[in-house]
Each structure stands twice: as C-alpha cells, then as structure tokens.
Automatic annotation (TrEMBL):
<dbReference type="InterPro" id="IPR029017">
    <property type="entry name" value="Enolase-like_N"/>
</dbReference>
<dbReference type="GO" id="GO:0016052">
    <property type="term" value="P:carbohydrate catabolic process"/>
</dbReference>
<dbReference type="InterPro" id="IPR013342">
    <property type="entry name" value="Mandelate_racemase_C"/>
</dbReference>
<dbReference type="InterPro" id="IPR046945">
    <property type="entry name" value="RHMD-like"/>
</dbReference>
<protein>
    <submittedName>
        <fullName>L-alanine-DL-glutamate epimerase-like enolase superfamily enzyme</fullName>
    </submittedName>
</protein>
<dbReference type="GO" id="GO:0000287">
    <property type="term" value="F:magnesium ion binding"/>
</dbReference>
<feature type="domain" description="Mandelate racemase/muconate lactonizing enzyme C-terminal">
    <location>
        <begin position="144"/>
        <end position="241"/>
    </location>
</feature>
<dbReference type="GO" id="GO:0016836">
    <property type="term" value="F:hydro-lyase activity"/>
</dbReference>
<keyword id="KW-0479">Metal-binding</keyword>
<dbReference type="InterPro" id="IPR029065">
    <property type="entry name" value="Enolase_C-like"/>
</dbReference>
<dbReference type="InterPro" id="IPR036849">
    <property type="entry name" value="Enolase-like_C_sf"/>
</dbReference>
<keyword id="KW-0460">Magnesium</keyword>
<dbReference type="Pfam" id="PF13378">
    <property type="entry name" value="MR_MLE_C"/>
</dbReference>
Amino acid sequence: MKITGLDIRACALRRDATGRETALRGQAGGQRHDFLVYTLRTECGRSASMFGFAGASAIGSAHLAKTLEPFLMGRNVHDREGLWHDFRLRNRMWGHFPIYIWGPLDCCLWLLAAEVAEVPLYRYIGAAREEVPVYASSMFLNEQEDYVTEALSVRAAGFAGYKLHPPGHSVDADLEIHAAVRAAVGTDYTLMSDPVAMLTLPDALRYGRGLEQLGFAWFEEPMADESLPALRELTRQLDIPVVGTETLAGHPYSLADIVARQVVDAIRADVSWTGGVTGVLKSAHLADAFNMNCEIHTAIFHPLEMVNLHLCAALRNCTYLELLTPVSDFSFGLVGGLPIKDGIARLPETPGLGVPLDWDLIEDSTLEVMT
C-alpha cells in the first residue's frame, strides 16, 4: 500500500471571548485554536487523517508539513520503522522541523495499518487494558477561587484527579493555591502540580516539599527539561515523584541517559510532540526497561487525544489519560466526542481510531488546503 499524496489543511477554530485565558499562555490568547489536518492518501484509495499541532501559525506550519510530501511519495505505509529513521536523518540534514511536524504523519501510518487489519488501534499495537482513568488538567487561572471551583467541578464529574498549572507569581503564592485546593477536595483525591516553571533548585526544593506536605501525587516540570543536573538533584532529594521530558526533542534518544541516571522519576510523551505512535512506544518501552512510568502528556486536540488513549490502553507503565479543562473548550474534532463517562475512557472496538473525525467542523475551520 504505497503513499500517493499528502494533503494539509491549515485550520483555525474561533472561540467566543470568555474573559479567561483558555490557552497555556499561547499566541492566540484563548480566542482561537490553530491546528492542522493531515491526510495521507494511498494508491488503493484508502486514506487516513489526523489533527496536528500548529504552534504560532497554522499557515506557516502547514507549509512546513507539506514539504514532506516528496519524502513520503511511493513509500509503503507499513514501513513505519524505516520512515521513522529516514525522517530522523532528513530532519538532521538541515530539515530542523518543529517537534510537532512528524507525529500526525506517523499516526496516519498506524491508523491505515489498523484499519486494513480490521482491529482498533490499541489492539493492533497490543492491548494491555480496555479502560483508562482520566484526569483533568487546568489552564493558568487568575485567582485561587478559580482553581478551587474547577477542582470541585472536576471531582464531581468523576475524573480520577486534577492537575494544577499554577499562575507562578511566587512559590509561596502558588503553594497557598495548592493548599486551598487540597482543603476543598479532601485528602483522598488525587492532585498533581505542573508549574511549567524555570525555578532555581532551592526554590524547586521548597516547592516540592510543600507539595509533599499536601499529599500531591507528582511534581511536574519544576525546571526546564534540559536542566538535567538540577533535576537529578531535585529528584534525589524529594520524596514526591518528579516528572518531566515532554518538551525535549529527539525522543527516545534524548531520554536514554535521563532514564538510566534517574534524572526524573517518570517521563512524559505524547503523539503530537514525541513523533507519533512510534515515538511514544519507543520512549515508553525505554522507561519500562527501567521500571519507570511514561505518563502520557496531553496532545490538546481531541483527535490526537484519541490516539493518546489507544496508547494508554497499550501500555502497562502509564496511569492516566490527561485532558485539558474546561474540557468543553477542546471537545471538537470528533463526531460524538471522546468515549469518556464518569472519568473513565473506554476503548472502542471499531477498526482504527474508532471515532470519526468531524469533517463539517474541519471544513468550517479551514483557512487553506494544500493538495
């Protein structure tokens, strides 16, 4: 089954102004979601499509993605491993693509193969479970009360946990917010913290010890993922698990020494920034060889989250699926939405992705089509 074409749509979904920031301090400021839609076409008439991250510009990212068409033409969709390594070389030879460019293409390759095999993607990979607990992950909110209200809503909706992205005004102010959320939800509810910070080691130690006293489940990205010596020392001194690596390019190779030297307690990967299904599997299996978890990082857009879900169901060393909240702000792109009820995602048994893309929404959101 040879590849005959790559179509790229640059898309933007506009959102009504809500008075709150619904993007992680992104370019669009919460007013629109820029994204791509990749469609890989084959000689037999089959095709597969997947959403893609677009960074600061859907148009700019679409043009970059489209340049990969000559590289793909004539290749067999089943040659995923060969394509993975050939793209790695292509990227090194002055390609230097953003980390989010290859992932959707790799997802399309896996989806085509699963559809031909007439099995859902997670079973094609190799199933480990049929249900996955889901936790909700906040945006950067303005006030302590905003976090408390959202955490209570998330708990009431049945989600398995709530992760704070605190505003980052100061260590003490952030810890006060974490303490208020803990007091509101009780001691038996799972909470995580992700400051997305560039803290000094002393501040990160103080922050982490405060989270330990509050019974938080993990401490994520307290320093830049490249800060390996400081992260290793932080991990050594804290009891709370330190989690990181989602922003590093070059998975799994960039993770090998991190995992072997226990720079963090658990790594992060996702199909958008880690190079698709192939990249996540390589990273997760590396971690598994060291009895370490690979916690799947949100891919933001729900079609990509659906692929993340299939991977969660195919991995034993992953605990949860992560979704950004308010979930309604991101619940577009799939007909009928993600298969989640009472905080549990249940895998579909239809071939491939298992949920169709919402082409009406895609058409309405398209800025430019590159065929």
